Amino acid sequence: MAVECSTAELAKYLNITQKQLRTLEQNGVLKRIAHNRWNPTQCAHLFIKHLQESRGKSNLEAYREQHMKAKAEMAEMSAALMAGELGYVEEIRQDYEDEVLQIRTTLLTNLPRVLSLLPQSKTTRARENEYRNAVRKELHAISRDRSKKQTRRSKITAEQDP
Q1: Whole-angstrom distance, CA of residue 144 vs CA of residue 147
Q2: Is the dihedral of CA 26, 30, 34, 38 positive or negative?
Q3: Phi, psi at residue 29, to the nearest 5°?
């Protein structure tokens, strides 16, 4: 049988105010059993663990540490953006849409011409293989063109960097 206590009793037991207790619950440090019901042993263990992890830091020190960490992350992201390792989501989405549109246009313009020039095979299976091979050749040509563009783009980027 689990021991239970009220919010007021737990706050007194942990030597904190009821408001601090609610804040700890909202932050995920402490857990209630039910409305106004707590397991004091479990809460004491969780509260001690929380205090050990905070190592007695004041709120100002904790916020300062969090702020410095965020600044460092922003500096890393900025450096990665300048190095071309990161991109803006909108730019990446636009590049992706452009690539898909280019592939679609290429396939819709080149494939009918290529397929119309193929000799008509007698069997359905042979026709399917011819069509499949024609599609593969077009896709291969598209990927070659794409890799050439990426090579050109990387050369231009390298020339722009000081």
Answers
A1: 5
A2: negative
A3: -80, -50
Q: Which amino acid is at 121?
A: S
Three-state DSSP at 17 gives: coil
Identify which of 81, 67, 64, 9 has the alpha carbon closest to the alpha carbon of residue 38. Answer: 9
Residue whose C-alpha is closest to residue 106's, from 79, 72, 134? 134
- Tens-digit pLDDT string for the chain (162 aa): 568 999 999 999 999 999 999 999 998 999 999 999 999 999 999 999 888 887 766 677 778 888 999 999 999 988 887 877 777 778 888 888 988 888 888 888 888 888 788 777 778 888 888 888 888 888 888 888 777 666 665 655 555 555
Whole-angstrom Cα distance, residue 6 to residue 84? Answer: 57
- Give the DSSP H/E element, type plus range, for residue 102: helix 89-117
